[in-house]
Design brief:
Elements lengths: L2 H7 L3 H12 L3 H21 L4 E9 L19 H8 L2 H13 L6 H6 L1 E4 L6 E8 L2 H51 L4 H25 L6 E5 L12 H25 L7 H8 L3 E4 L19 H14 L2 H6 L1 E5 L6 H16 L3 E6 L7 H5 L23 E6 L3 E6 L7 H5 L2 H7 L7 E6 L18 E6 L6 H13 L3 E7 L5 H16 L3 E4 L5 E3 L3 H4 L13
Parallel strand pairs: 5-12, 6-10, 6-11, 7-9, 7-10, 11-12
Antiparallel strand pairs: 1-3, 1-4, 2-3, 8-9, 13-14
Helix pairs in contact: 3-9, 5-7, 7-8, 10-17, 11-13
InterPro entries: Bact_polysacc_biosynth/exp (IPR050445), P-loop_NTPase (IPR027417)
Protein name: Lipopolysaccharide biosynthesis protein
Organism: Streptomyces gelaticus
Length: about 550
C-alpha cells in the first residue's frame, strides 16, 4: 500500500497550490470576519468623511518677448517649468490670493489656503494645472481662480521688476557717457583724437539707448488662463460603492493572511497528504456523514446507505491487501477520545466481512468502559445473564455473543467486561487462542482496542495482531499524534494498514456523548469492585434489583 503515498509525493505544483488554497478555505470564519471588518471600515470612511469638491484651472506659462509673432520666437525661452511649479505653491502667491479672497468676503489664512491646492504639470507642456479642493463647489471655484490669478500677477510683477532693474542699470551706465559726450562737444577742437573719442561715446550711448528701448518694449504677459475653474457638479474622492469594494477587497486579503497564519500554527492534520505522510500509511476511505439508526451502530444492512457502501469498499480493499490476506487479523483503534468512531468502524467491518462469507470474530478489547454490546442494540442475540457466572470465569470466557446483521449474515462478538488487571487479561492464554482463530481458512479476527494514546492496552496486542487501522477525525487529531502512533506500532512489531476518516461530531452530538459518558460512570447502583478500587454500575436488570454490591474477590452474593 505504498503506491498512494508515492502518488501524493509526486503531485505537481498546481495540485499543491490547489490543496493549500482548499486548506485556507477551511477557516471560513476568519475569511468572513476579515471581509466584514473591511466592509465596516469602508462604510465608516464613506459615511463619516465630509464631502469635498475639486475645481481645476489651467495656465499656459510664457516668457517675455519683444515680438511674439516674429519668426523663431519661442514661448518657452528661459522657462524652467519645475521652478514655476514651486512658485505656484509658494507663500507669496498665497498672500496675494488671501488678499483677493478677503475682498470677496472669504477670509482664510495662507497655510489653510495652500493646503487644499495641488499644482501639476502635464508632461512635455508649459501648462500648470491648478486643482483646489474645498467643502463647497463655489468655494473650490473661487479659491482656484484666486490662486491662478495670483500666480499670474506674481509672475508679471517679477518680470516687470526685472525689466525695471535692468533699465536702471543701463541708465546708470548711460549717464556718465552722456556727460563725457557733452564735455567733448564743448571742447569743439579739430583734433582727430577728440573726434574719435566723441564718436565712440555716441556709439556706446546709442547701444545703451537701444537696449533700454527694447526692454521697455517687451511684452510682459506671464501667461494665459486657458481653462477657467468651474463649479464641480459632484463631490470628488471615492464614493460609498467604491469604498465598500475596496474595504471588502482589503478585508478579504486580511482574512487570507489570518487564515494563512492560523494554518501555519495549526497542529491538526490539514490535508490528506499530511495525514498519509505523518502516519506512513495510505488513506483507506472517508466515511460520509449519515444519521445512524436508533439503537445500533451498524450501517451494513440498511438499504441505500452511503455509509454502508463505504464500509464495504474498505473491507474489500483490506481483503485484497497482501499483508492482511496473509494474517487475517486486524486491530481497529483511535488516537484519542472515546473511541466511538473506532467501535462503529470495527462493527461495520466485521459485518462487511461476514457479508463476504467469512467467519468473523469481533473482540472488544476495551476492558475499562465496554459498551459495544449495548451500542449494537437489538442486533446482539439474547444470551444468559452475565451475573450467573460472575466471579467464577474471567474475560473472555462466557463473553461470546452472536450479532445478526439483517440480510448480510452474522458474526461472533466477544464483548468486553470490566476487569481488575487489564494488561494481564489482554495477554492471557484464552485471548491468544481467540486471536489464533485468524489462521483458520476463511476466518477473520477483528480486535477493537481503546485509543492508543489514552491507554497502553492496544500496545499489548500489537505483537499478535500486526495489522492496524487507525480511525480518526482529521480535525481533531494532530500530526504529532499520528507520528507517535506510527512509532509505537512499529516499535511493538505491528504495521499500519491505513487510516479511516470519519466526519466530526457536531456540538450537540459532543454534548450528548458527554452526558452519556457521565451516566455510564456516575449513574445507576453499585455493582462490584472496579479496576481502580471503586464501584462499577449495573447495566443488567437482574443486578440492579440486588441490594448488595458484588465483590470481585469474594465472588457473588
Amino acid at each position: 500500500m505504498n503506491q498512494p503515498i508515492r502518488a501524493l509525493e509526486d503531485q505537481d505544483e498546481p495540485a499543491l497550490l490547489r490543496d493549500q488554497f482548499r486548506q485556507l478555505l477551511r477557516y471560513r470564519a476568519l475569511l468572513a470576519s476579515g471581509v466584514v471588518v473591511g466592509l465596516l471600515g469602508g462604510g465608516w470612511l464613506a459615511l463619516s468623511g465630509e464631502e469635498s469638491y475639486t475645481s481645476t484651472g489651467e495656465v499656459v506659462v510664457r516668457s517675455a518677448a519683444s515680438d511674439p509673432f516674429a519668426a523663431g520666437a519661442s514661448a518657452d525661452k528661459g522657462i524652467n517649468i519645475g521652478s514655476e511649479r514651486q512658485t505656484a505653491v509658494s507663500d507669496s502667491v498665497g498672500t496675494v490670493a488671501v488678499a483677493t479672497l478677503a475682498r470677496q468676503g472669504d477670509r482664510v489664512e495662507v497655510g489653510p489656503l495652500l493646503s487644499g491646492l495641488q499644482v501639476t504639470n502635464p508632461p512635455n507642456t508649459l501648462v500648470l494645472r491648478f486643482s483646489y479642493t474645498g467643502r463647497t463647489p463655489v468655494l473650490a471655484k473661487e479659491r482656484a481662480q484666486a490662486l491662478a490669478d495670483a500666480y499670474l500677477e506674481i509672475r508679471k510683477q517679477r518680470t516687470e521688476n526685472s525689466i525695471a532693474n535692468m533699465v536702471e542699470g543701463y541708465r546708470a551706465q548711460l549717464s556718465p557717457l552722456t556727460a563725457q559726450r557733452d564735455q567733448l562737444t564743448e571742447q569743439a577742437t579739430g583734433s582727430d583724437d577728440v573726434a574719435g573719442a566723441r564718436a565712440n561715446l555716441v556709439v556706446a550711448i546709442s547701444e545703451l539707448s537701444r537696449k533700454i528701448s527694447e526692454l521697455r518694449a517687451l511684452d510682459t504677459t506671464p501667461g494665459y488662463l486657458t481653462k477657467k475653474p468651474a463649479e464641480p457638479t459632484g463631490p470628488t474622492g471615492a464614493g460609498l460603492p467604491l469604498l465598500l469594494g475596496l474595504g471588502g477587497g482589503i478585508g478579504l486579503a486580511l482574512g487570507l493572511l489570518l487564515s494563512w497564519v492560523r494554518l501555519v500554527f495549526d497542529p491538526a492534520v490539514r490535508s490528506t497528504r499530511e495525514l498519509v505522510r505523518s502516519l506512513g500509511a495510505p488513506l483507506l476511505g472517508t466515511l460520509p456523514r449519515e444519521r445512524a439508526s436508533a439503537g445500533t451502530l451498524l450501517a451494513i444492512g440498511r438499504s441505500g446507505s452511503r455509509l454502508a457502501e463505504e464500509y464495504r469498499a474498505v473491507a474489500f480493499r483490506l481483503a485484497y491487501d497482501p499483508s492482511f490476506a496473509q494474517r487475517r487479523r486486524l486491530l481497529v483503534t483511535a488516537p484519542r477520545g472515546d473511541g466511538t468512531g473506532a467501535a462503529a468502524a470495527a462493527a461495520n467491518l466485521a459485518a462487511a466481512f461476514a457479508e463476504m462469507g467469512r467467519d468473523v470474530i469481533l473482540v472488544e478489547a476495551d476492558l475499562r468502559t465496554p459498551a459495544l454490546a449495548r451500542d449494537l442494540g437489538p442486533a446482539v442475540q439474547a444470551a444468559p445473564p452475565r451475573w450467573v457466572n460472575r466471579g467464577e470465569l474471567a474475560w473472555p470466557s462466557e463473553s461470546r455473543k452472536n450479532v445478526d446483521v439483517p440480510g448480510s449474515g452474522a458474526f461472533t462478538l466477544i464483548a468486553g467486561r470490566r476487569t481488575d488487571n487489564v494488561a494481564r487479561a489482554l495477554t492471557s492464554a484464552p485471548v491468544g487462542v481467540i486471536l489464533a482463530a485468524g489462521d483458520r481458512p476463511g476466518a477473520v479476527v477483528i480486535v477493537l482496542a481503546p485509543p492508543v494514546l489514552s491507554y497502553a492496552d492496544a500496545v499489548a496486542l500489537f505483537d499478535r495482531v500486526e495489522d492496524v487501522v487507525v480511525v480518526c477525525d482529521p480535525r481533531e487529531v494532530h500530526r504529532s499524534d499520528l507520528e507517535r502512533i506510527r512509532e509505537i506500532i512499529q516499535a511493538a512489531g505491528g504495521s499500519v494498514l491505513g487510516a479511516l476518516l470519519h466526519p466530526g461530531r457536531s456540538r450537540h452530538e459532543r454534548r450528548a456523548l458527554k452526558k452519556a459518558a457521565k451516566r455510564r460512570t456516575g449513574g445507576g447502583r453499585p455493582r462490584r469492585g472496579s479496576a481502580d478500587g471503586g464501584l462499577e454500575y449495573a447495566d443488567d436488570p437482574a443486578e440492579t434489583l440486588g441490594l448488595r454490591p458484588f465483590d470481585s474477590a469474594a465472588g457473588h452474593r
